[in-house]
Amino acid sequence: MRETGNAQARPYHHGDLSRALVDAARRILEAEGAAALSLRAVAREAGVSPAAPYHHFKDKTELLEVVAYQGWDALGAAIVAARKHAASPLEALNDIGLAYVHFARENPALYRLMYDTTRDRTAMPEHDAKEESGYFQVQEAIVAAGADPNDGLELQLATVAAWCAVHGLAEMACFKEFQPLREAMGGDDAFLRAVLQHYGGFTRGSRRKPGA
User: Fold this and answer.
1) Of 18, 142, 167, 205, which cross-links 146 as Cys (Cβ 3.0–4.6 Å)?
2) Which fold has domain 64-204?
3) Contacts of residue 161, Cβ cutoff 8 Å, sequence gap at least 6
């Protein structure tokens, strides 16, 4: 078992216990996985009494939901940054896809938790309606790349397709069977970009109607 440290090296300010507990949960999550998470373990990692977490979270499930929510916010921020620094609207779509895959790789346990906590629900996380959410930013990037903002059905389908495509790429990109392709393309990012460019949504923004 890896040592994740203790709160002596990471003191929290009065009133910040909730944040300290979530940060402790993140450290345990990435070091040991979701199975190692418990309110008692989080309390120990944060350097507080075993009862302290119950003042902020009714159980482990609620704590995990807060951690997952933090993950969705972080993914949204990564997508916002990728879009902001892209050389063009069309490149923004590819940069967003690359940022998504990098986020999944750099935060593997958090990434799995984000989807695990939504798996049994009938709706996406509520914050996906916000302008800073990743899903909203993907939709806006598709419009900027040429999609008709007034064709709501087509825009929604294009956004879902783009999100599902990059999610699948994040899940599969490291498979050893793709190593020859990575080498042929000159590296991992070049391989990822090439795959993204073979998805229609990442090259055209959305399908255009005949005569449009």
Assistant:
1) 205
2) Tetracycline Repressor; domain 2 (1.10.357)
3) 199, 200, 201
Domain 7-57 has CATH 1.10.10.10: no
Alpha helices in the chain (DSSP H): 17-32, 39-46, 60-84, 89-106, 108-116, 134-144, 152-172, 179-185, 188-196, 201-204
Could you give the residue ranges of the DSSP H alpha helices within 85-151? Answer: 89-106, 108-116, 134-144
Per-residue tens of pLDDT for the chain, all 212 residues = 444 444 444 444 445 888 999 999 999 999 998 889 999 999 999 999 999 999 899 999 999 999 999 999 999 999 999 999 999 998 999 999 999 999 999 999 999 999 998 876 666 665 555 677 899 999 999 999 999 999 999 999 999 999 999 999 999 999 999 999 999 999 999 999 999 988 866 765 444 444 44
